[in-house]
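Hey,
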Amino acid sequence: MNMRSAKAFTFIEVLCVLLVVVVGVGGVVALVAYGMEVASRARGETTGLATAISIAKDADPRPLLAPELQGDWTPPTPIAPTTSVDLSHAGDLKFESKGFINGFYVVRTETSTYPTDVLAASGGVVYARSCRVEVNVYETFNGRPVTAYVTRLVRQRGRP
């Protein structure tokens, strides 16, 4: 055995070590990136659910936003054949609000079927009516659904 070959690494040994180091560092970077993506998605789902619940439970489905931020949130818009918010309407009621809130695109749909959802009526006047509220929350960049929330509310007529 030659003294010269015993004291140095061969080129192939150096390449193998570099390959192992590069693969190891790449794996660590990929693992950190994946962890950040999972954490971001979990944070988004938590914030999205809180947003959905606050929009669903709002008696007047308009979020409490500063005036400069309310520009893209639509007020409850009737969906055909509904034309008014009249609780005594002898038909189905369906209203939709949508816009950007908390960094999400939110769609709030409120529906009530007649006469199934009528809770209190007298002489053709409906005093209380149940409504199904569905809130869908989407990511703003790729439109991926984040969360959905469904609940029921009771709408009642105010004093005359």
